[in-house]
């Protein structure tokens, strides 16, 4: 029995049609008949999202994989055309098994399905990921812009124009969210992005969630009037959809007819019941989406823009007799410049690199040797190297600016042996597994204080006296971090208390520890002070044979979380 909880505030004529559809669906003998009824209705009138959900649910329940694909191909553009962007996740999974569909791309504030979850320090595979698609996803405000930015930032040094674009879009997303309850202010904020596709996609997404929002429909139509260009069919099709839902609004239908006469003799529509000034066409949807959707630049464009065409070395260096700067000042600049400034110095004058050969390495990662691939791979300023070849790379005096990932199950001194070959480390994204370090070596890696994402697993750290360095001393070097994942580093009876007294500069999005023990009340205070809403907390006891202690810890911390955060903002908390 299908539920119809959306039938309030409908135009009488449309409500009558929906009521008839309701009776037909409930009286149908099987799901095949229900599918046909829904399909026929959607070809004549706008179908609400609740019934699109039912339609795709019936497809998955009823048909084989091949039949699902064929049925979906014939109807998926209808659903997008009718502003149904919230295709169920299980439907996407089903399509995965029977082959991809080419769906129109949308620049949405919030996706209609959950994106892939990104855990602490998720770098991805390889040193040459294609960044073009990530840049496109940074070019408009979205709830996932920070996650996308982290992915992009791990690929190569972002140009300043991309940095500024990200900062602008992040700020605009916050502004749009702040005014979302006021539809006029919300629309004005969307328009500040300066991207008509973004405005249209998000208005349509919001309308698809509430088709009865007549005020937003009319604001959208007025917006499209201002944007109307010769040959553009978006305005006319929006009128057409409006009139298939608000069927008693004769004034708007007259307005639609005048617009159709002004901009087109006869508009092609996908509706099987065309008005007298429309014409039904099976190709209408294909033509509509091909005209209204931007064909994005090739993903290879970003790659082409980074092909090296000019090389230099000391042999073609023009002699530089004197510089305006005195030598001590130049030395000070070289020693204290960040990676971006140093790179610009190298670009502006060969003398700087010739006299101070400090290769800037954006990302350094070790890997197991893939079949039929070289031991060392370079991409722009990033290096990926087979573990045992790290100290044989020939890299000397390098400045590591952003990403460090060292994983080696066999040689626990790999990173320690390589650190002397490094000039400086400012890495924000750090992942180290199965390594032994002194505290001084760890300080070289973390001591710059700008670590954002730290993953340490089975890392032995000793101080000058040979004693184990505890977690709290590691985190004192990471006061700006937002993602922490530490396992196999020592803790002490005072770890929780010391953590609760530390002053971190940002709220944690992920905080995962593998420990021997934590004092529950002090740790609860640490969480209340330092965890972001909807963050993730995982505590893994190394020796979990004391069930009462673990149960008591879980209860005290859970109570603190429940009392401190609102229900829709509570962090996820697990103890294992």
Automatic annotation (TrEMBL):
This is Uncharacterized protein. The lineage of its organism: Eukaryota, Metazoa, Ecdysozoa, Nematoda, Chromadorea.
């Amino acid at each position: 029995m299908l539920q119809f909880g959306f039938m309030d505030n409908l135009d009488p004529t449309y409500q009558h049609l929906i009521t008839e559809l309701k009776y037909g669906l409930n009286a149908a003998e099987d799901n095949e008949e229900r599918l046909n009824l829904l399909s026929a209705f959607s070809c004549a009138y706008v179908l609400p999202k609740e019934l699109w959900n039912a339609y795709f649910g019936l497809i998955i329940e009823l048909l084989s994989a091949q039949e699902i694909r064929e049925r979906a191909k014939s109807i998926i553009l209808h659903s997008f055309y009718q502003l149904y962007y919230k295709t169920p996740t299980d439907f996407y999974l089903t399509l995965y098994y029977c082959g991809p569909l080419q769906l129109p791309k949308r620049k949405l504030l919030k996706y209609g399905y959950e994106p892939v979850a990104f855990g602490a320090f998720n770098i991805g595979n390889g040193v040459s990921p294609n960044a073009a698609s990530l840049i496109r996803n940074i070019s408009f405000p979205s709830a996932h812009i920070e996650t996308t930015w982290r992915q992009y930032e791990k690929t190569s040094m972002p140009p300043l124009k991309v940095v500024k674009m990200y900062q602008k879009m992040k700020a605009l997303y916050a502004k749009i969210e702040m005014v979302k309850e006021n539809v006029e202010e919300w629309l004005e904020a969307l328009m500040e992005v300066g991207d008509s596709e973004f405005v249209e996609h998000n208005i349509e997404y919001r309308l698809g969630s509430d088709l009865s929002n007549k005020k937003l429909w009319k604001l959208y139509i007025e917006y499209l009037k201002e944007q109307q260009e010769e040959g553009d069919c978006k305005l006319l099709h929006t009128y057409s959809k409006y009139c298939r839902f608000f069927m008693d609004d004769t004034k708007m239908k007259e307005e639609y007819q005048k617009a159709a006469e002004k901009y087109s003799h006869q508009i092609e529509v996908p509706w099987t019941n065309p008005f007298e000034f429309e014409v039904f066409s099976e190709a209408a949807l294909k033509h509509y989406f091909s005209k209204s959707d931007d064909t994005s630049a090739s993903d290879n464009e970003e790659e082409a823009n980074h092909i090296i065409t000019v090389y230099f070395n000391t042999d073609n260096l023009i002699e530089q007799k004197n510089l305006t700067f005195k030598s001590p000042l130049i030395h000070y600049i070289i020693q204290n410049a960040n990676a971006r400034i140093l790179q610009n110095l190298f670009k502006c004058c060969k003398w700087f690199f010739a006299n101070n050969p400090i290769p800037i390495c954006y990302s350094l990662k070790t890997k197991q040797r893939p079949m039929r691939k070289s031991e060392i791979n370079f991409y722009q300023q990033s290096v990926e190297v087979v573990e045992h070849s790290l100290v044989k790379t020939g890299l000397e005096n390098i400045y590591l600016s952003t990403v460090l990932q060292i994983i080696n199950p066999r040689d626990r001194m790999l990173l320690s042996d390589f650190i002397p070959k490094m000039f400086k480390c400012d890495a924000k994204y750090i992942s180290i597994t199965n390594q032994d370090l002194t505290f001084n070596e760890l300080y070289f890696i973390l001591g710059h204080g700008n670590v954002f994402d730290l993953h340490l697993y089975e890392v032995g750290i000793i101080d000058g006296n040979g004693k184990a360095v505890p977690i709290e001393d590691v985190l004192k070097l990471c006061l700006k971090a937002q993602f922490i994942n530490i396992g196999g580093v020592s803790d002490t009876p005072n770890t929780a208390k010391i953590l609760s007294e530390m002053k971190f500069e940002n709220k944690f999005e992920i905080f995962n520890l593998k420990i021997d023990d934590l004092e529950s009340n002090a740790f609860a205070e640490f969480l209340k002070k330092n965890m972001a809403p909807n963050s993730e907390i995982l505590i893994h006891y190394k020796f979990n044979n004391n069930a009462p202690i673990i149960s008591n810890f879980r209860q005290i911390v859970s109570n603190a979380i429940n009392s401190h955060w609102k229900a829709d903002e509570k962090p996820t908390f697990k103890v294992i």
